[in-house]
Amino acid sequence: MAETDKSERTLAVFFDFENLALGLKDKKEGHFDIQKVLERLVEKGKIVVKKAYSDWSRYSAYKQAFHAAGVELIEIPKRGMTGKNSADIRLVVDALELSFTKEHIDSFVIVSGDSDFSPLVAKLKENGKHVIGLAIKESSSDLLITSCDEFIYYDDLARPTLHPPSVRSDVPEKKQEAFKLLLDSVEALLRENKPILYSSMVKDTMKRKKPSFNEGYHGYRTFSELLEDAQTHELIEINVDSRSGTYVISGFGMKKKKKPTRRRSPRSEPAS
After folding, report:
1. Could you give the domains of the chain?
2. Mean per-residue pLDDT for 184-191?
3. Rounded to an integer, what distance in angstroms lies between the CA atom of residue 252 and that of residue 230?
4. Each residue's pLDDT tens digit, 47-64
């Protein structure tokens, strides 16, 4: 039988950068890490649209990092020339147009804490879209937070919520790379409260985090073989799903376990 949880969200991400910059200024941190945000969002699904709105002449120090991350920079002239909410209006228009014209995009991420986006969130939800908010905690409107289906605080992105085991230093370098990516992906799925961690779901998350991932490069014939080796190194615990006949990850490894016994081999995902 086929695995039952194969759904993957398709995300469009919109940055109201001036709101973020003001929030950082109030916190006196002064730096916004775009990679930290995108690494968290790829755990939610596949990002297909990334747009950021600002008067980029004022924030030129961020342009290179946003370009390197594949974010389209939308130039909004100074507010004195165009009016207070010009960036907000452009973001709302683009998001609504996308929601009406791109049916395959099922999730929208509004990276802002501005309550002015609450009507946009309501309309996106009315159109059947899942809406995620992300902003700095102190500058996030309660109205916006309660309007979204989910809300992520930028402040929490660097705080570990789970504690995966460490990969031993005597493990070969290529295996270390694979194991660390595997643990990071399992941690992401556990943080998303996925009820069952199918092997294909874990592999999809690994490839979203690192598109060039290929288990063959790390010395494994199949992804199942990689999972078995990770269990041997006490990093994860795996079992065979009775319905699909494939491996599922039940959590991080706590103690050494024997290979799971089974009547037939689990379906293996060949190296791609």
Report:
1. 9-156 (3.40.50.1010), 173-252 (1.10.10)
2. 86
3. 10
4. 999 999 999 988 899 999
